[in-house]
Amino acid sequence: MDTVSRVYALLNERNMSLYQLARLSGVSHSTIKTTEKRGGQLTVETIERLCDGLGITLCDFFRENKEKKV
Asked: How far apart are CA 13 and CA 25, in angstroms?
């Protein structure tokens, strides 16, 4: 899973900006932007802080939002 893309997807779902999330989580927006530009992944510590800002758990962050069709 691309953690940076997941952050942007969650922001989009909540109609939040990266700057709002940075303020709520204490993670600078440049941390996410730099990770994105370098093609890297966010650390677990950073994801935990972002989850706090989003009001979700780590489990929610990594949960795939795909509905299974039977």
From this structure: 17
State pTM to two decimals.
0.87
- Contacting residues for 13 by C-beta, under 8 A, at least 6 apart: none
Return phi, psi of residue 6, to 5°: -65, -40
Give the whole-angstrom CA distance, residue 1 versus residue 31.
Answer: 18
Q: Can you give the pLDDT at residue 64?
A: 72
CATH class of 3-62: mainly alpha
7, 32 Cβ separation under 8 angstroms: yes
Q: What is the CB neighbour count within 10 angstroms for residue 21?
A: 22
